[in-house]
């Protein structure tokens, strides 16, 4: 006899629950988490350093946590901005998970931090699948990476709530086709805002800070198509897919499916039914 | 490669289900993997085999059920296959899709339990 169990459970449900919890805990401390994703070498550390320094000059309490496979070089660079910075070494793991982040914040995150920037591991594939508990997910791409980056990494770009183009100062030299890039972003994430920056020239520096501050003031964030799950009637059905983008429970139909929502499997083991074949 | 983390999450959840249901061995695990879930089924199968070693899932077979990406446009009341990379603007009005009907699934659909060692020994005797 072979018995089967319909688990019907999201594989990343544990991380999703942890992320929901962390988001709520940070909200209670009035801290907004900004998750920054990009390829290695996209210039996110240089931009973040400039944004942190600006925040400090403006008297905005910010902090940054930077994750790398190895070396503390990024934390050393970010610390020059004069704000609290923590380096996390993942020992080879390609992404951060919410539980790991919570452990690193525990006992470190200074009271009163308004914005916490998390520089994820340089990788556009793996971190895209993990909700960290962020309220703003930002994907960065430099002009040197090619216009088709959004199509090559559709999960990362498709779930972004803000896209930042970096190294704009060398766009002409590398013949960056901005229109093609924007068309590609629109294909996978229509409506997402794209900002252009050059940390070297100071161009666009402050945009990221402004957007993050707006979120901390309660401004609505972009809801990507890819993060919006619909039921069979085309209504939002509030399924959480671990992307941290507003789980909308805005309608009251009954659903026979059973994923993502913390209430529906609070114990983590929704053994919905067993049957024998 | 986050497929290893995903495989470990699968093994973890099924291990818990086995304990609570009193199962000793797993024959097959069926995963639903959406076209837009950002997971490579071949890489996942490779990692799954490693993640199963020395667990109740040792020797279990992983079956993946692909789920195509489908998007919906509210004003046009139409739906379409997104493809990969996905087209998330409506092919008719070119406006943004209202959302996805499917495609981001990464779910354990079904676990088929195998008779455990004790049960198998009993049947042979």
UniProtKB/TrEMBL annotation, chain A:
It comes from the Bacteria. Gene3D superfamilies: P-loop containing nucleotide triphosphate hydrolases. Pfam families: cobW. Residues 35-195 form the CobW/HypB/UreG nucleotide-binding domain. The keyword Metal-binding applies. InterPro entries: CobW/HypB/UreG_nucleotide-bd, Hyd_mat_HypB, P-loop_NTPase. Keywords: GTP-binding, Hydrolase, Metal-binding, Nickel, Nucleotide-binding, Zinc. Residues 230-277 are annotated as: Disordered. SUPFAM superfamilies: P-loop containing nucleoside triphosphate hydrolases (SSF52540). Residues 232-277 have a biased composition (Basic and acidic residues). Belongs to the SIMIBI class G3E GTPase family. HypB/HupM subfamily. NCBIfam families: hypB (TIGR00073). This is Hydrogenase nickel incorporation protein HypB. It comes from Streptantibioticus silvisoli.
Automatic annotation (TrEMBL), chain B:
Zn(2+) binds at residues 73, 76, 90, 93. Signal peptide: none annotated. Ni(2+) binds at residue 2. Keywords: Metal-binding, Nickel, Zinc. The keyword Lipoprotein does not apply. The keyword Iron does not apply. Pfam families: HypA. PANTHER family: HYDROGENASE MATURATION FACTOR HYPA. Belongs to the HypA/HybF family. Involved in the maturation of [NiFe] hydrogenases. Required for nickel insertion into the metal center of the hydrogenase. This is Hydrogenase maturation factor HypA.
